[in-house]
């Protein structure tokens, strides 16, 4: 229902989802930034959510033929990502998020070229600024066991034909020294001039980092206070390998070297054990949980409910996917809520905990601190067939809310979305340009596709023996 420009607009304000019902207010316009577009009668105003883990996929993985699979067999398919402009790639990703009401995101940059890190990451910073969202920029750090745990590329050679090995071996990465990698991240932080961007160390996972690199990151973070964002214990194979590599336990090792602190967020944590998530909670570490990605890549279901009961703080991340491959954080929250519901008469994993994770802990993970960014929801659409209008709004949102119900988004007082339309950049034009760049890379991708399949099957054969 709409209103004229001179009329008050009654609606709801939901300050503490899951803890308190929404307040009914006589005029929502009085609570919006000056000059904001008018909401509709019955709209709901609430804190905007943040995406606690992502990779900035403007072009989604399935679009370039990366079909869901077990994680280690799926990773080779990322070689089919087209060579596109990093600015354009992330502009499309960030714009899609903003349209869905997301006020900020972690972006784990995927560059494998340390020499281009500065150029690429500053392009990502510019994209976030143009869209108008907050950004936690996790810069990649890795130097160990490319392609296969416990030995690297040579482990896969017996499972590849000579022709495939000869073609693939030319792409084995060469790593910059530990000091140079850490210095490169610090240089990005020094060059960043956007106060809404937090540059972070991004070790991509302990299975891909040497002890020297992990220890160097821990020392650097302790000295300069820079946050760390790292994948941890995502798949069963990672659990197996890290148990062998660190007999005392990977989480205990990280604690011993001073890696665990409130400056650290770990993504996934599907294979965490009770003593490990208790230690993470004790050290103030946050977990970025990605339920759909973990289901799609057959890693399992994270012990989130039990970890939260131990005091572990968490956020929810899309990891570039979503249940319907639509990068919809509201649906992702629904998946988490359902998966962690358990079978008891009384729910232990609450709506309040989930909304706090998405709107508060996630801002800590991004490095943004306490925020006052707001989203306006077309709540009347959500309850258009409801016989009662006093049902707990948090439960309604977790049952029905999607990105398509976002009416407006305000970040730093700036109107990013109005009347469901992105106001800051031309999403459709950017997407079309990105697709044109991707299609221009098709000759290379057609050549690469066979080797990617061979590498995926070699990975499957190698890990089948574990």
TrEMBL record:
Top-level taxon: Bacteria
Membrane-traversing stretches: none
InterPro entries: Amidohydro-rel, Metal_Hydrolase, MTA/SAH_deaminase
Keyword Transmembrane attached: no
A Pfam family assignment: Amidohydro_1
Cited SUPFAM superfamilies: Metallo-dependent hydrolases
Domain Amidohydrolase-related: 50-378
Keyword Hydrolase in annotation: yes
Keywords: Hydrolase
MF term (GO), any: hydrolase activity
UniProt similarity note: Belongs to the metallo-dependent hydrolases superfamily. ATZ/TRZ family.
Protein name in the entry: Amidohydrolase family protein
Naturally occurring in which organism (per UniProt): Mesorhizobium zhangyense
High-level lineage: Bacteria, Pseudomonadati, Pseudomonadota, Alphaproteobacteria, Hyphomicrobiales
């Amino acid at each position: 229902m709409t209103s004229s420009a001179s009329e008050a607009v009654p609606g709801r304000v939901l300050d503490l989802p899951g803890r308190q019902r929404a307040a009914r207010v006589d005029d929502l316009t009085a609570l919006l930034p000056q000059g904001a577009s008018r909401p509709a009668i019955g709209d709901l105003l609430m804190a905007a959510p943040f995406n606690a883990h992502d990779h900035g996929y403007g072009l989604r993985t399935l679009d370039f033929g990366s079909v869901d699979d077990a994680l280690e067999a799926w990773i080779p398919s990322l070689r089919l990502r087209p060579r596109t402009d990093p600015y354009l790639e992330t502009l499309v990703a960030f714009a899609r998020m903003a349209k869905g009401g997301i006020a900020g995101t972690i972006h784990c940059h995927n560059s494998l070229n340390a020499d281009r890190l500065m150029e690429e990451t500053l392009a990502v910073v510019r994209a976030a600024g143009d869209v108008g969202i907050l950004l936690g920029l996790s810069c990649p750090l890795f130097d160990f066991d490319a392609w296969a745990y416990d030995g690297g590329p040579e482990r896969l050679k017996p499972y590849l034909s000579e022709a495939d090995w000869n073609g693939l071996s030319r792409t084995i990465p060469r790593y910059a020294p530990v000091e140079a990698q850490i210095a490169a991240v610090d240089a990005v932080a020094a060059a960043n001039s956007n106060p809404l961007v937090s540059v972070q160390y991004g070790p991509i996972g302990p299975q891909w980092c040497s002890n020297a690199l992990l220890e160097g990151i821990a020392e650097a973070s302790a000295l300069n206070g820079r946050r760390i964002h790292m994948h941890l214990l995502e798949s069963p194979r990672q659990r197996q390998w890290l148990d062998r590599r660190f007999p005392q336990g990977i989480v205990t090792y990280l604690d011993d070297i001073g890696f665990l602190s409130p400056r650290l967020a770990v993504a996934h944590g599907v294979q965490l054990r009770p003593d490990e998530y208790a230690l993470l909670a004790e050290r103030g570490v946050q977990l970025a949980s990605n339920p759909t990605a973990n289901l799609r890549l057959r890693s399992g279901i994270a012990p989130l409910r039990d970890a939260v009961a131990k005091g572990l703080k968490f956020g929810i991340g899309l990891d570039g996917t979503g249940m319907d491959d639509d990068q919809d954080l509201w649906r992702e929250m629904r998946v988490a809520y359902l998966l962690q519901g358990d079978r008891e008469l009384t729910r232990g994993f609450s709506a309040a905990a989930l909304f706090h994770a998405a709107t508060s802990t996630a801002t800590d993970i991004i490095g943004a601190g306490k925020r006052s960014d707001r989203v306006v929801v077309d709540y009347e659409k959500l309850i258009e067939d409801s016989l009662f209008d006093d049902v707990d709004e948090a439960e309604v949102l977790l049952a029905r809310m999607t990105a398509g119900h976002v009416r407006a988004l305000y970040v730093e007082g700036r109107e990013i979305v109005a009347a469901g339309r992105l106001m800051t950049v031309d999403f459709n034009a950017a997407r079309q340009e990105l697709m044109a760049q991707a299609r221009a890379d098709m000759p290379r991708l057609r050549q690469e596709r066979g080797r990617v399949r061979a590498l995926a099957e070699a990975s499957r054969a190698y890990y089948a023996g574990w």
